[in-house]
Give the backbone structure.
Amino acid sequence: MGQTIKHKCNSCDFEFIEEDKEFYFNEELTKLTEETPLFNTFQKIAKSQLSGNIYLTYCDNCNNFIKTYSVTKNETSLDDEEIKELIIESGASEQITNEPVEKLVLIRNDDRLIKCPKCENEILKTLTHGSGCPKCENGKLLANMFTIND
């Protein structure tokens, strides 16, 4: 079951839409697919040799959204660097709600903080309800609209 959450700062005009997304590759590892985790998606992910989660965050230093791919399943012979290259070079979406997005690939990373791939600034891996606003740093992000899909 997937969800979409609209977050808005209670102090400034910053807002973004967080979508529950997962990624997986086809059997030949030639096509990356990003989908909301629905019932039929779980079957596709289970068959994939390479899959994981997608998170969205924001860097206030360079004003870029960061799309983070976190690999959770690797049953291939690819090493970490080959997986990173495969994901970065894939045809994955590089825009979210008309905003440019930087890509970052994490291999088994459980850290809460990550480095922005563009400017190296330390940022939260994912923004959630109650997080401090990355733009104004005064407000809190409030989830003000939920959509649940199945």
Observations:
- The helical segments are 39-47, 80-89.
- The chain has a mean pLDDT of 82.
- The two ends are 5 Å apart (CA to CA).
